[in-house]
């Protein structure tokens, strides 16, 4: 009996181990990417990205468009963005290239923190691309120490999505909201609320996207040009962004939301009259088909500080090649598609509405085509023109850390603390935290 | 005064029940609605259940993810129970000099957050990959191996073993059973309810585990359910109806395990051996 038990336990153990190790033999593909570089077969290249309808689809289209010399076997792995960050951080800081991909998509705000923390881990693309072909703000975000590490991908160019029917009800036209300042925006918002009862904007108090949009539109950021010295206290753009934020709250034209689904719900349900955000929101706006013809997109309002423009960026990401086996093939693949193929960018626009930042690839019929949902406006062409005007800034290593500090100080400011005190507190915290 | 006590109790309990059940209600209702309805907070059941489900099974490999999660959860539950109960039994039943010190060190290890050992652990598995790829990074085995010996379960079994009568062990020894025999043939059957309670917790922990599988499992065919759901929510325009369907399906196994073992679970928490 004893023996039987012993055998049973051993068997169970073996089965569990075997079941788990089962398919390992034939499938170690993701492990080291392109180990077969020198052999005759296609080079294996692994890529990590998020969003199946956007980035993943773009990679698939790139694979179809690829006509380079090296034969490639591209494996695209879908991961949520936060998950990619977590995996990269764990993998790179443990110094193990095992399991790391060849190509990875990184959000521009986070790029510097990866490039500066793990400079050895990335493969420079300087020899593969011509930086002048890309929007300058994008090159700034993806370069470090004189080398271009990232291949700039999608534009996060911003715009102000407006409900034309609500504006009309309040006596405004689309021209009236074009090229305005944020104070004018607030005044219009008050009138819209009075006439229609709807709020002008929906906002998440914990998401500083709007403030970042305002900052970059004025060519400013949380940091000095070195990307590491916090520039909060004496930053005129940030001051005005805070003031605008408070003025909006006091004018009672803000609908509050606390997560992405409520944000999307805000304009899908028709609760707000405008949405200032990145162009990637277009599919979500168009998801509510009953509102077709009632939307228009205009440049975002500007700050009244020196250098204030109506062009800015929110989000957007770029492709990076990790310094592992198969890096040459991966870099060649990117350079051949995202880096030089103008037709490919037309396909991107036609198939997924993805707006690139590759300047030669921003012309053509696909860009000029009017969008019925936006009452015939050629929004792609508009966005593409605005992309050229986005002021370049150095996002630095700690954008999100500063966000967290400012969110709290903003609450204090709204609760009555003076702006000077709030910003100088933020400056102190930033300096202690990021030393 | 006494007359009012009962209705008040029920009122309070009803409110508490409503609050705790509401998220589940909303999850199930949202499963039948379109994404747009979910974002607008629709509370009524809709007609998109089959659409959501078919989209889900079309777009992502639910079956593989469920299988992976099941393999990991079952293997990890089985090994956790085996190792933790052996250790707990040993710590409680045998005399040894440094026993208490070792046990205290073990308890201290409960205070180390997993995130802080993740990088060294990843490094370790990277090394293992080079000699034994079937145990290394990107294998299901690697996803549960670090979680099978936890101080919590050893402690749990040690505490419950306190109730286990030493006389039974003596009786076993007199009848000629080996020490291992006593464990498997006397201890394990007697402590059934403790095992059941531990099994539920271990299964739930493993089923919901996110961080370590996220880091160590990279290929899509190794994906577990929490990883799959995390991916679903990652697009710029997430489909909430579909996500809710996935979450409902992911919740079912833990709910079922709990319902079937509820009786044992309660008994196990109270202690296996009735005094």
Automatic annotation (TrEMBL), chain A:
Coiled coil: none annotated. InterPro entries: Bact_solute-bd_prot1, SBP. Pfam families: SBP_bac_8. Residues 1-21 form the signal peptide. Residues 22-45 are annotated as: Disordered. PANTHER family: ARABINOSE-BINDING PROTEIN-RELATED (PTHR43649), SUGAR BINDING SECRETED PROTEIN (PTHR43649:SF32). This is Lactose-binding protein.
TrEMBL record, chain B:
Its main location: membrane. The chain crosses the membrane at residues 7-29, 70-89, 101-122, 134-157, 195-215, 240-261. Residues 66-261 form the ABC transmembrane type-1 domain. The keyword GTP-binding does not apply. InterPro entries: MetI-like, MetI-like_sf. One of its GO terms (cellular component) is plasma membrane. It comes from the Bacteria. The keyword Chaperone does not apply. This is Lactose/L-arabinose transport system permease protein.
């Amino acid at each position: 009996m004893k023996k039987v038990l012993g055998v049973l336990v051993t068997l169970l153990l073996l089965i569990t181990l075997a079941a788990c190790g089962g398919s390992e033999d034939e499938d170690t593909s993701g492990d080291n990417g392109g180990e077969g570089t020198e052999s005759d077969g296609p080079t294996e290249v692994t890529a990590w990205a998020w969003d199946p309808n956007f980035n993943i689809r773009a990679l698939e289209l790139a694979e179809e468009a690829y006509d380079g010399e090296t034969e490639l076997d591209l494996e695209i792995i879908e991961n949520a963005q936060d998950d990619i960050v977590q995996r990269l951080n764990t993998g790179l800081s443990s110094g193990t290239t095992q399991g790391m991909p060849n190509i990875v998509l990184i959000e521009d705000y986070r790029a510097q923190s990866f490039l500066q923390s793990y400079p050895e881990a990335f493969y420079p693309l300087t020899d593969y691309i011509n930086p002048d072909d890309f929007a300058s703000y994008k090159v700034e975000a993806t370069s470090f120490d004189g080398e271009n590490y990232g291949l700039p991908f999608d534009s996060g160019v911003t715009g102000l999505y407006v409900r034309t029917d609500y504006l009309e009800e309040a006596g405004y036209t689309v021209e009236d909201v074009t090229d305005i300042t944020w104070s004018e925006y607030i005044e219009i918002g008050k009138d819209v609320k009075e006439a229609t009862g709807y709020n002008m904007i929906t906002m998440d108090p914990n998401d500083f996207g709007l403030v970042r949009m305002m900052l970059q539109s004025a060519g400013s950021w949380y940091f000095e040009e070195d990307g590491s010295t916090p520039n909060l206290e004496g930053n005129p753009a940030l001051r005005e962004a805070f003031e605008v934020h408070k003025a909006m709250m006091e004018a009672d034209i803000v609908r509050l939301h606390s997560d992405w689904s409520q944000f999307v719900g805000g304009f899908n349900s028709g609760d707000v009259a405008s949405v200032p955000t990145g162009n990637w929101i277009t599919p979500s706006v168009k998801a509510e088909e009953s509102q077709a013809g009632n939307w228009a997109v205009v440049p975002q309002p500007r700050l009244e500080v020196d250098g204030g423009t109506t062009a800015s960026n929110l989000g957007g990401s770029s492709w990076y090649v990790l310094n592992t086996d198969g890096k040459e093939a991966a870099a060649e693949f990117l350079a051949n598609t995202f880096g030089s193929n103008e037709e490919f960018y037309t396909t991107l626009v036609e198939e997924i509405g993805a707006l690139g930042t590759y300047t030669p690839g921003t012309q053509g019929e696909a860009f000029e085509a009017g969008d019925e949902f936006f009452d015939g406006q050629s929004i792609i062409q508009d966005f593409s023109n605005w992309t050229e005007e986005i002021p370049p800034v150095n996002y630095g290593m700690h954008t999100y850390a500063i966000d967290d500090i400012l969110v709290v100080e903003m609450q204090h400011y709204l609760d009555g603390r003076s702006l000077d005190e709030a910003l100088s507190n933020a400056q102190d915290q930033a300096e202690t935290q990021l030393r | 005064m006494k007359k009012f006590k009962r209705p008040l109790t029920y009122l309070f309990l009803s409110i508490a029940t409503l609050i705790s059940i509401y998220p589940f209600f909303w999850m199930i209702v949202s499963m039948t609605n379109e994404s747009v309805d979910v974002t607008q907070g629709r509370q009524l059941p809709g007609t998109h259940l089959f659409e959501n489900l078919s989209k889900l099974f079309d777009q992502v490999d639910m079956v593989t993810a469920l299988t992976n999660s099941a393999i990991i959860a079952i293997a990890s539950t089985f090994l956790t129970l085996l190792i933790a109960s052996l250790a707990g039994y040993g710590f409680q039943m045998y005399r040894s000099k440094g026993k208490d010190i070792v046990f205290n060190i073990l308890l201290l290890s409960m205070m180390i957050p997993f995130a802080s050992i993740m990088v060294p652990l990843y490094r370790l598995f990277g090394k293992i990959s080079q000699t034994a790829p079937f145990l290394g990074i990107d294998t299901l085995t690697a996803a549960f191996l670090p979680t099978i010996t936890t101080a919590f379960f050893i402690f749990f079994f040690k505490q419950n073993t306190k109730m286990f009568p030493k006389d039974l062990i003596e009786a076993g020894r007199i009848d000629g059973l080996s020490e291992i025999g006593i464990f498997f043939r006397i201890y394990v059957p007697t402590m059934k309810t403790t095992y059941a309670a531990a099994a539920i917790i271990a299964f739930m922990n493993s089923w919901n585990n996110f961080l370590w599988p996220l880091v160590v499992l990279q290929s899509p065919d190794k994906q577990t359910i929490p990883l799959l759901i995390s991916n679903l929510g990652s697009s710029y325009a997430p489909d909430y109806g579909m996500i809710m369907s996935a979450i409902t399906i992911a919740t079912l196994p833990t709910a079922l395990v709990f319902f079937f073992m509820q009786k044992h679970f309660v008994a196990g928490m109270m202690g296996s051996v009735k005094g």
